[in-house]
Amino acid sequence: MNASIRLKLFVMMALEFFIWGAWLPLIFGYLPSLGFSPGEQAWILNAFPIAAIVGMFFSNQFCDRNFAAEKFLAFSHLIGGLAMLGLAFTKTFWPFFGLMLVHCLLFVPTMSIVNSIAFAHLKDSQKEFGLVRMGGTIGWILAAWPFTFILVDWDKVHAANAPGFVAWIGTVLGNGLTGEKLKAATAWTYIVAGIASLALAAFSFVLPPTPPKKSGEGAVEKLAWLEALKFLKHPFILVLWLVTLLDSFVHNCYFNWTGMFLGADPAAGGVGIPGNWIMPVMSVGQVAEILTMFILGATLARLGWRTTMIVGILGHAARFAVYAFFPQHAGLIIAVQILHGICYAFFFATVYIFADAYFPKDARASAQGLFNVMILGGGALLANSICPYLGQSVFTHENVTNFKGLFLVPMGCALAATVALALFFHPPKGLEAGKTGH
């Protein structure tokens, strides 16, 4: 394969996930600072999973069949990028919700479009796609680092009057924003994400041409997802589908609460990490994800489907246990972010691989969509509807959050999912991890 094309696909993936990684981690603490009620926050946060569900049943197939992929990518990121920039200057609910919905409805289909572009131009997708897709993980990691220099208390930096460049850099990195200043400055995350979206819109015009697929050219047939739904009659598939919903809920609890927990004052039960270091700390999980993906194949071969997935779910339980019982140990809290890679690769990535192995070839794309409805849609909807209410109403008293009680909720859900998987997930004996075919 032409190395320049592979590089373009890698950059495309990096920009795609940079956009998402720039605004998602800090939005959960930003929305309450704008005075939005828990219900209003839920509507805004659910714009993404709603778009994911719409994409499953309509927009992904519509875009795939009617537009050249690179042109749709350019259009979506142009309009979506402008909507994202608008969010930085919007402080009232309905305009904020409207702009977020526009961005998500256009962004979510592009997550499939970038995969389509990549697969269309890779000669050996099994060998090459992993390296190209790694660009997305690296893009998410890179999205965190501009904010070490953006979310800075510049008044303290100027007052320190550090001598020399090295001392000045140290002063900048050591004086992150906190409290209300941090919440106000979080608007910059939308500016950075919007600029990245516009950059990808422009970059799309140098991507290799990928014409639309017509019916009969490998496109998913109408209502093919209904064929995938029929597989839920098998108890072990239904169990895995429901466990995926529960694990996705737990996964989204992490994003809902971790940023606020890391930034909260230790006296209020938080970790007290400066605002400019919150996103880099959370990005440790994506670094671990890259490393974990390298050993996933060997792990599946050794442990099998069920045990590998159980380890992934238990990673969530262990991380929330550390949050709940050791919040005063900042080093341990940072180190436990490594479990994010295990949680994602050993459960979600394994679910995708299992669907490819179990479902018939002509139903695999729909099967992936069936589980994506839970991973990107149902679980996120559940978490984004419940988490703001729990965080602000149930576990907060006189502006002090009971983080321990809060984190015991997803920890318990993760343990329940583990038990359900251990007791009721029994795939056919002939279906060995790493082998395909139904």
Keywords:
two-stranded antiparallel sheet, 438 residues, 18 helices, 2 strands, Growth Hormone, Chain: A, disordered C terminus, 2 domains, globular
Describe the structure.
With 438 residues, the protein is mainly alpha-helical. It has two domains: 1-151 and 186-219, Growth Hormone, Chain: A; 224-438, Growth Hormone, Chain: A. It is built from 18 helices and two strands. The protein has helices at 3-33, 38-45, 47-66, 69-87, 93-121, 125-144, 147-150, 154-160, 165-173, 179-185, 188-203, 224-229, 235-263, 275-325, 330-335, 339-358, 364-394, 403-424, and strands at residues 396-397, 400-401. Strands 1-2 form a two-stranded antiparallel ribbon. α1 (3-33) runs antiparallel to α5, α4 runs antiparallel to α11 (188-203) and α13 runs antiparallel to α16 (339-358). The longest helix has 51 residues, at 275-325. The two termini are 31 Å apart.
Secondary structure topology:
Elements lengths: L2 H31 L4 H8 L1 H20 L2 H19 L5 H29 L3 H20 L2 H4 L3 H7 L4 H9 L5 H7 L2 H16 L20 H6 L5 H29 L11 H51 L4 H6 L3 H20 L5 H31 L1 E2 L2 E2 L1 H22 L14
Antiparallel strand pairs: 1-2
Helix pairs in contact: 1-5, 1-6, 1-11, 1-13, 2-17, 3-5, 3-17, 4-5, 4-11, 6-14, 13-14, 13-16, 13-17, 13-18, 14-16, 14-18, 16-17
